Amino acid sequence: MKKKLTSLTLLLLTFAANAQNMATTSVESSIENSAYNKWSIELNGGLNKPVRAMGANYATEPLGAWHGDLGVRYMFNPKFGLKLDYGYDQLTEGSNSPDFDSRYMRLDLQGVINLSRALNFETWTNTFGLLVHGGFGVSQLTSKNGFDGEDYMGNGIMGITGQVRLGNRVALTADLTGLVNIKQNENFDGMTPLTTRGFDGILINTSIGLTFYLGKNEKHADWVSEGDKYDSLEKRVGMIETGLLDSDKDGVADLYDLEPNSIAGVAVNTKGQSIDNNQNGVPDELESYLEKTYGVKSDSVSTNSTVEQLINDGYVNVYFDFNSSKPTTASLSGIDFLVKYLKNNPSKSADVVGYADEIGSSSYNVELSRKRAEAVKQVAINAGIDASRLNVIANGEDASVNKNSKEARQIVRRVSFQVK
Question: Could you give the CA distance from residue 345 to residue 389 in angstroms, rounded to a whole number?
Fold first, then answer.
């Protein structure tokens, strides 16, 4: 019998490999595999009831004895998967039965069909689901005070599982499963032998449990529909469309713009950076305009007053990622602009003013804005500006934009300057 058990186990593994090859070529593979998680662990506990294959006068309680099972499931796509599960049943006498105490253990490989996706449950609910499972396995029956040794057999199994989604990582389940044993030699009571050797052993399991979803993606295959594929596509298209915008109107799309706040109208290179060949902190085109408008290049009063106005009017900023106090690499040019101005004007000082978006508590955002201003101040100090010329101000939240807009929030996560 043990050789038969080994052969049957190998057969189950072969079936699993073939099923995987077929599943990966199905139409459902058109949904991106990376869009959802595939693995889950199922833990259930409940009651059992032998329907037949009990000896004369032997019976369990009407609701049976304890049942438990543990399964590992892999979904090839949102509609089909396989699971390997282990079940354990304790079988003891009822109130009007002679004493007996037996144990039934099984290992099964089952196909799983997600009826929720097949029947488009997502059109009316994202909370309830329904799975159907069935397959074959091997079983063992033992008895504490009945026959000696173990009774090995094959089994067929089929069941239905209702699901209640508690979150992206866990679902509550209720399951009803039936098993039919093949070549069972002993009755479930373990005290009497079976008189026939067909499909006489039938056991019903009812259980409730939890399914834990594994993986790095947001959703599991149990709750993914075709609509999610299009939602993901729309997000990607939206990201591309946003990236192709040119917020500072310099001719370079934001996606490729390393200087997203360049002064309007000045020449930029292919990366959106203002052209400043003499490295004096003033874009060459603006410098040329100032020279023509206010006189020769040595006329520093007019030039400097106009540059100062640009700084104070908010054209020079340093930007930050969400919940970060480290300036983005692309906006370090804003600090460089201020540093060059202060070096050219030793009598000037500047307020370094930090801001945050509206996500989070006000007190937290005030502290975050202070950290951002301090970080910018430190970069300027490291670049050669005396700390006494820089005054940190924490302005906290900037509520001037729509806080539900990711792009708008990026604009207000900044440090600006006030030269005086």
Answer: 11
DSSP conformational letter for 275: P
**What is the residue-wise DSSP string for 93-160?**
--TTS---EEEEEEEEEEEEEEHHHHTTGGGT-SSEEEEEEEEEEEEEEEESSSSSS-EEEEEEEEEE
**Cβ of 399: how many Cβ atoms within 10 Å?**
10
The tokens for 58 are 């032997």
- Give the architecture-level CATH label for domain 2-230: Beta Barrel (2.40)
Cβ atoms 31, 226 nearer than 8 A = yes
Taking the C-alpha atoms of residue 26 and residue 113, their distance in angstroms, rounded to an integer, is: 14
The answer to whether the beta carbons of residues 141 and 186 sit under 8 Å apart is yes
Distance CA 243, CA 245 (A): 5
- pLDDT in the model for residue 29: 43
State the amino acid at position 174 in one-letter form.
Answer: A
pLDDT band at 10 (very low <50, low <70, confident <90, very high): very low
Residue of 143, 117, 145 lying closest to 130 (CA atoms): 117
pTM of the model: 0.52
The answer to whether the beta carbons of residues 253 and 268 sit under 8 Å apart is no
Q: Is 211 helix (H, G, I), strand (E, B) or coil?
A: strand
- In the chain, residues under CATH classification 3.30.1330.60 are 247-419
User: Over the stretch 402-414, which tens digit does the pLDDT of each residue have?
Assistant: 988 888 898 899 9
Residue 297 region, left (φ>0) first, then alpha (ψ -120 to 50), else beta?
Answer: alpha
CATH number of 247-419: 3.30.1330.60
Give me the helix-helix angle, 332-344 and 362-382, nearest 10°: 50
